[in-house]
Automatic annotation (TrEMBL):
This is Cation diffusion facilitator family transporter. The keyword Transport applies. It is a multi-pass membrane protein. It comes from Sphaerisporangium aureirubrum. It comes from the Bacteria. InterPro entries: Cation_efflux, Cation_efflux_CTD, Cation_efflux_CTD_sf, Cation_efflux_TM, Cation_efflux_TMD_sf, CDF_Transporter. The keyword Aminoacyl-tRNA synthetase does not apply. Belongs to the cation diffusion facilitator (CDF) transporter (TC 2.A.4) family.
Length: 326
């Protein structure tokens, strides 16, 4: 009897699947994210410092643009690290969903940093076009371009791999950003080669190309952050959730399915229809099974709320009381 009352009591509360394992997994994801950011920050700072020294010796504006971009890319680790740290805090009565949204706010800061680096690189390139200057130590400039590519490509692979494993779109986007930086570093070689062949304007022209590349990265990063802020998800996730629900014994139909990202974890709110003549306990068991399968089969889903509706062959409207509020 006690077990029956416990099951019935659970029916009137949202079905949740937050367990110690889920919490531990979330904390481990944040730990890995922080570790990636720390290592990649150090690599990019060292890369940018080496390039900055060569900029001072050579006066290459193309290399300056690439150096500014690498410094900016290193600085994007700061807001992300703050966001990962905040995301580990437990939910409160005010922040009932926790602090995962801090990751999206960090994304806005990243977009602003990229925009500033594009502006500075473009300004210096135009300035050098108007007032051309000789570029010195072309061999070192070429070496700096190779160093920039190597450092960024290593960071890109590291961020993208871990970002996909922990489900952090911001970390993956930052990794793709680093990969683009690597190719812009190779463009510095073009500027050095042009200058070596007696075409001094090659350096500022490559600087403008690098600025354009930064602007494309800026567009993609801004679009990604916009989607997260607007609770956009990949439609394929909705299709997968529907297939999972329809495979649950007792589910006659899947109604509304809503997913949203909170930081690097998914949360779901779904409606299912079950036979109208099921007992309360049996209907609840179907809902629990649906929730269980969703969390285990849908990648990076941390919590789900399942609402049960009766599948009534008579066509009765069981939500008539709420019709005026829709």
């Amino acid at each position: 009897m006690g077990a029956l009352l416990a099951k019935v009591g659970h029916v009137v509360t949202p079905h949740s699947h937050d367990s110690a394992d889920k919490t531990d997994a979330a904390l481990e994801s944040s730990e890995r994210g922080l570790r990636v950011l720390g290592v990649s920050f150090a690599v990019l700072v060292v890369t940018a410092v080496v390039q900055a020294v060569i900029v001072g010796v050579s006066g290459s504006v193309a290399l300056l643009g690439d150096t500014l971009h690498n410094f900016a890319d290193a600085l994007t680790a700061v807001p992300l690290a703050i966001a990962f740290s905040l995301g580990r805090r437990a939910a409160t009565r005010r922040f009932t969903y926790g602090y995962g949204r801090a990751e999206d706010l960090a994304g806005i800061a990243i977009v602003l940093v990229i925009a500033v680096s594009a502006g500075l690189a473009g300004y210096e390139a135009v300035k050098r076009l108007i007032d051309p200057q000789d570029v010195h130590a072309l061999g070192w400039v070429a070496v700096a371009g190779v160093i920039g590519f190597a450092g960024n490509e290593w960071v890109a692979r590291y961020r993208i791999r871990v970002g996909r494993e922990i489900g952090s779109a911001a970390l993956v986007a930052d990794g793709l950003h680093a990969r683009t930086d690597g190719f812009t570093s190779l463009a510095v070689l073009l500027g050095a080669g042009g200058a070596a062949l007696g075409f001094p304007l090659a350096d500022p022209l490559v600087g403008l190309l690098i600025t354009a590349a930064i602007c494309f990265v800026l567009r993609d990063a801004a679009r990604e952050i916009y989607h997260r802020l607007m609770d956009a998800v990949d439609p394929a996730l909705i299709d997968a959730a529907e297939r999972i629900l329809l495979a649950v014994p007792g589910v006659r139909h899947a109604g509304s399915i809503r997913l949203r990202w909170i930081g690097h974890a998914l949360h779901a709110e779904v409606e299912i229809l079950v036979d109208h003549d099921l007992s309360l306990v049996d209907a609840h068991a179907v809902a629990v099974e649906a929730e269980h399968r969703l969390i285990h089969d849908l990648p990076r889903l941390r919590a789900a709320t399942v609402h049960i509706d009766p599948h009534d062959p008579t066509g009765a409207d069981h939500h008539a009381l709420l019709s005026t509020h829709r």
